[in-house]
Automatic annotation (TrEMBL):
Membrane topology: Multi-pass membrane protein
Name used for this protein in its record: Olfactory receptor
Protein role: Putative odorant or sperm cell receptor.
Cell membrane as UniProt keyword: yes
Record's GO cellular component terms: plasma membrane
Cellular compartments annotated: Cell membrane
Record PANTHER family: OLFACTORY RECEPTOR, OLFACTORY RECEPTOR 6C76
GO molecular function: G protein-coupled receptor activity; olfactory receptor activity
Length: 314
């Protein structure tokens, strides 16, 4: 416990409760998820960089999305794994807590900006294919990616700064496996109602701002696909968007439950489950979504494996 109107210099992460055996099972499960996430997303980045068939805007954005997934999960999961091995609560310094929360939110904001840009890219590819290479040229793609990264990091400076300007006099025990903003606000002895409302509006701006471009793009995409006379043509057109659409549903669905709510100080168990979806499950699933449903990526991956096997035999 902290004294009245004092500021914490460190926090304790409560993490996961349960027996030692259960914590070891959780450790093994999350460690497996983390390794697959790292390997799967790294493979996508390498293939996109090396294979000439994947030198297009869609896969350029996919490479950056995979890099974001690696970074997001690396910011959260190693700390969580270490906490599962400790017998008690895990200590995290104020500086580490600030860095973790800022990077987590900044990378998440960047990811949603990029998902919105990918939706527009699919709209141009399906609805305006003859001008696709002109509109989505390398200069446009680079600008979109740079703006997405800058926006994500600049947008989260004030929310994180304001969070750690609060006085933490109630406790310094965070009821989550990482420095969750909702749980941090719970610990403050200040009146956070106005701040929570501002954070709610900012979350609405980020999520619905990128979601609107996604909804509008897919409205036009579906309308265009339905006008294609042949079933094979419709199937081929939709297959180019299926991976992105699946990723959007999982990503937006999780974050809408986590951040777009007027009351940021939600129940700890609720936040813990949704945070796992965002930081562990979604990055784990994305490599499978973008490879198993994409013929070009599967073909490129198969060729690279054959090439590696051939070189190994020689």
């Amino acid at each position: 416990m902290l004294g009245n109107h004092s500021s914490a210099t460190e926090f304790y992460l409560l993490g996961f409760s349960g027996s030692r055996e259960l914590r070891h099972i959780l450790f093994a499960t999350f460690f497996f998820f983390y390794l697959v996430t790292l390997m799967g997303n790294t493979v996508i980045i390498v293939i996109v960089c090396l294979d000439e068939r994947l030198q297009s805007p869609m896969y350029f954005f996919l490479g950056h999305l995979s890099a974001l997934e690696i970074l997001v999960t690396t910011i959260i999961v190693p700390v969580m794994l270490w906490g599962l091995l400790l017998p008690g609560m895990q200590t995290i310094s104020l500086v580490a807590c600030v860095a973790q929360l800022f990077l987590y939110l900044a990378l998440g904001t960047t990811e949603f900006s990029l998902l919105g840009a990918m939706a527009v890219d699919r709209y141009v590819a399906v609805c305006n294919p003859l001008r696709y290479n002109v509109i989505m040229n390398s200069c446009t793609c680079n600008i979109v990616v740079i703006v997405s990264w800058l926006f994500g990091f600049l947008f989260q400076i004030w929310p994180v700064y304001a969070t750690f300007q609060l006085s933490y006099c109630k406790s310094n025990v965070v009821d989550n496996f990482f420095c969750d903003r909702g749980q941090l606000l719970k610990l403050s002895c200040d009146n956070t109602l106005f701040m929570e409302f501002i954070l709610f509006l900012m979350a609405v701006f980020v999520l619905f701002g990128s979601l609107i471009s996604t909804i509008v793009s897919y409205t036009y995409i579906i309308s265009t696909i339905l006008k294609i006379p042949s079933a094979s043509g419709r199937r081929k057109a939709f297959s180019t968007c299926a991976s992105h659409f699946t990723c959007v549903v999982i990503g937006y669905g999780s974050c809408l439950f986590l951040y777009v709510k007027p009351k940021q100080t939600q129940a700890a168990d609720y936040n813990r489950v949704v945070s796992l979806m965002v930081s562990v499950v979604t990055p784990f699933l994305n490599p499978f979504i973008f490879t198993l449903r994409n013929d070009k990526v599967i073909e490129a991956l198969r060729d690279r494996v054959k090439q590696c096997c051939h070189q190994f035999r020689n």
